[in-house]
Design a protein that fits this description.
DUF6594 domain-containing protein; transmembrane helix; 15 helices; transmembrane; mainly alpha; membrane
Amino acid sequence: MNTNADDINNAEKPGHVVIDIDSRASTVVHTPTNTAENSPPTRDPNIEINDTITSTLESYPCGYPQLAGFQSSESSFSIYRTFDYLHSRVILQLQDELRDCEENLSDMDYLDSKNGREKCLTSRMGDLKQTRKDKQSSSKRVDLLATIATKLIQYDQVLVGARKLGAFQRPSARDYRSVRRFFYNEKPLSSMSEEQYILRKEDLVTLRHGREWATFDGWVEGLVSKFPWKWLTRKLFTTPELRKKSTSDTIFYYSPSRIEQFVCLIITFIIFVLLVLPVVAMYKLTYVGNRNNLFDAIGILVAFTLLFSAAMGMLTKAKRHELFAASAAYCAVLVVFISNFDGQNGKMGSPGG
């Protein structure tokens, strides 16, 4: 749909909203006019567009509705039991039933092979003919295989389900404490037996997916929650939707993306310090140019490489091979600095000089 010049001019007037659907398509303009058929807008169009509906925890009735609202309000609060023990019991039960069926099938095949009924083993038609000859309504082998198929399906479903549950992440200590505090403060369930599931920490998993926060991320969020200027932290580290989720003084929602940006700033500053400080220290040591200072510079290189590795391990969720590669690259940078420095005259030398 192409727009003419009149439409574009009308779009600039108050009460008109321009919707850019696609950068490659024409602009679609909605132009309500202040006529008798169209009443004037009562609200700012930007407010109408940006306004959202957020369900608060207090809007849910106390009990399971409020508990479900709390656990669904944040992925880190979605903590549930896996029932590992019951999975094991069911798997063991089905496993033994299948073992018994396997033995019965082996005994049946062995008896047919010894009693001259090899056709029952080499042909399904032969097995059916033998069944009619024995005046039986159905083949025992077919019935047994049908039972085995049913139990195998059940066994496979439970086994695969247990395997998938085993791949779920365990809740972090911080997330677990948050849910425990909600149970302590709000007491959503009246039955102690129904509430005790949260006490079985070793049997709990979280539905939180994606990159699990490092310990440093949780520590920073905890530090932010302890800042004395609550109005400032809620302004900087929460969104309008998160502020609407609860009016309680004990429940705070922080935006993971904003916390992660703050953490990235801190990590960037730490990396900057770890890169600049050893260079400055080694420069001052190697400027004198004696042998002892050179060994001191090597000691600084080793110390700061260890600090860098420790920072990578604690501040990030880097895997072992990533940690090794980053530490090796960091050490290589410092080694190149020392090797290219001419200690006799205090100037940077060429790589070949």
